[in-house]
Amino acid sequence: MSQAELQAVLNLLNRIIVGKPQVIRLALTCLLGRGHLLMEDLPGMGKTTLAQALARVLGLQFQRIQFTADLLPADILGSSIFNRGDNKFEFHPGPVFTQVLLADEVNRATPKTQSALLEAMAEQQVTVEGATRALPQPFFVIATQNPLHQIGTYPLPESQLDRFLMRLAVGYPDIKAERELLRGEDRQQLLTTLKTQVSAAQLMAWQQAVEQVKVSDTLLDYVQLLLTATRTGSVFLHGLSPRAGLALLRAARAYAFVNGRDHVLPDDVQAVFVPVAAHRLWLRDAREEHSERAVLELLKSVPVPM
């Protein structure tokens, strides 16, 4: 039953984001792996549409924050306002109190404002004015960021980047997909026709099922070989941390689940390795802005244990 429902979700999302089945599969994998998703691409590639489609199909509350240079932490978390009638302060929750939060153009805000999301992403709670408040469950952040060469952007610190399970780029559609987009309905109009396929409770049950996906000792050997490969050699400034290794394993479990398996294969690790690892690794060659190519070459160089 779960696999049929999962396929129905994927089919609907593929109607909205045309020609990007692997991006959609990985985005759903990220959500089922209890992670957060960073999407880096040029404006107009469908990042916002994907976030809205995920929330609508999965029946989740959705909020969007447009990050700007003058955005303050209180604009995200909320603040207390004095109620004259009751003669006391009342907390008014900010947009972070939702299930799917789209942090649009997150790197246009200052580092102080960016860090307001850090506790929410890491601990599923926020502390405002000394009081800790739990966030709705499930809680999923999709942050979009513009390429760093664009004017008015602030690079995300490593501690913030590490809170994202994956980084994806939608990219340009191929010729066939773009023709379908040009001939078809407006994507925003299509969004209004989407019907909820599963409940939040069902989604959380899937997340729990992901944790039960089996991992063999041989598969763990493969993951450790990959981690060690990032820590040796002269390509990267530093290798993947143990927390990154756990993130890789979590993503591989979720990818196996999305593909209908109760155990992880090396193919699952390979499918998620670049999205999980690339934004956590920094190249020694400062002239290169992204490390995807180097991470992919490393992946190809590490043999799968027999």
Describe this structure in words.
The protein is an alpha/beta fold and 306 residues long. The protein has two domains: 22-171, 3-Layer(aba) Sandwich (Rossmann fold); 212-301, Helicase, Ruva Protein, domain 3 (Orthogonal Bundle). Helix content is 45%, strand content 14%. The protein is built from 14 helices and nine strands. The chain has helices at 2-16, 21-32, 47-57, 73-77, 111-114, 118-123, 158-161, 175-183, 187-193, 200-210, 217-231, 242-258, 266-277, 292-301, and strands spanning 37-40, 62-66, 78-83, 88-93, 100-104, 125-128, 131-134, 140-145, 166-168. It has a five-stranded parallel β-sheet. Strand 3 (78-83) and strand 4 form a beta hairpin. Helix 1 runs antiparallel to helix 3, helix 2 (21-32) packs across helix 12 and helix 12 (242-258) packs across helix 13 (266-277). The chain is globular, with a radius of gyration of 20 Å. The model has no long low-confidence stretch (mean pLDDT 87).
Summary of the model, kept short:
The chain has helices at 2-16, 21-32, 47-57, 73-77, 111-114, 118-123, 158-161, 175-183, 187-193, 200-210, 217-231, 242-258, 266-277, 292-301, and strands spanning 37-40, 62-66, 78-83, 88-93, 100-104, 125-128, 131-134, 140-145, 166-168. The protein folds into two domains: 22-171, 3-Layer(aba) Sandwich (Rossmann fold), CATH 3.40.50.300; 212-301, Magnesium chelatase subunit I, C-Terminal domain (Helicase, Ruva Protein, domain 3, Orthogonal Bundle).
